[in-house]
User: Fold this.
Amino acid sequence: MIGDGISGAFLARDLLKSCGDIAGGGSGEMPALPVPKTIESHMPTGFQGFRGRWAGIKEYRRMRREIRRLGVRPAHVRVEEDAPVGQRKTRIVPLRIPSSRTEALLDAARANRTTLHGLLGATLCLALQPEFDGSVVTFASPVNMRNRMEPPVGEDICLFVSMVNSQHRVDEDTDLWALARDIRGRAVEQMERGAPFSFLTLMNSITARRWFFPFTEKGIARHARFALKHIASQGTAGITNIGQLDIESTLGPLQIEAVHFVVSPSLLGYFVLTAASLQGTLCLDFIHCEPLVSHERTQAIAGRFEKLLLHSSE
Assistant:
């Protein structure tokens, strides 16, 4: 499926409902959704046409200026073994946080004037810190654009997500809560000035160049190389958090305990964390590309993350 994580959640919800209905003796039929409109038709006027493309260019320049201001290139997780894009394999290390501990994490985040997303982002950066080849981190957060569109999108199955990113200095002495507040604050500031719309127009302008990125094997490979060189190279790590899922825990004879999902790591950096909540349980997935980062190494990173995260609410 080509779509965002929330589209995947809607699709999983409906498929599970249908499977539960069939297992219970029903037909499993569900009404068809209308064909969604293009994302461009939902963009605010100020981000359409030439004005939108110019806004995207300015946002890209802003990001590059911020990196140059820091005087060093963004850190990356050290690569164990490089490989062409076509030979890379995406794998996950799952982690579940029970509802009682998730509630304690939410309380701790509120008490420290941040959000669960900020806490997860800061914890990821600190868990990855021993793996970095530098101290300046570019942290990326996908933004759900569904309710920001005009009109709002609702439950369309499509790609209605954008991105904000920010730069932070991270070392062994970095305070977890200060970093969590900084990640949240920088994301809020960018959303308030419309940066997610600017990023969307930038990416749409790039992918619309069919003559340069045709939908062929060579065109897709060319697009992947472009994204890795000009966008992923600017990132260190990221987290995509789709929040509380509207999926019932009991669907006919089926018992749904957790939902895990995987995204492409290209735009977020080579190391990505996904997060979703189901009936209070926090479902996390550490996404990595082999052979760049081994599965065993990712398991160790996930272990450090879990220890730091649970300690933050004690």
Remarks:
- Residues 5-312 form a domain with the Chloramphenicol Acetyltransferase fold (CATH 3.30.559.30).
- Strands lie at 89-97, 136-144, 161-169, 237-244, 250-251, 254-255, 271-278, 281-290.
- The chain has one domain: 5-312.
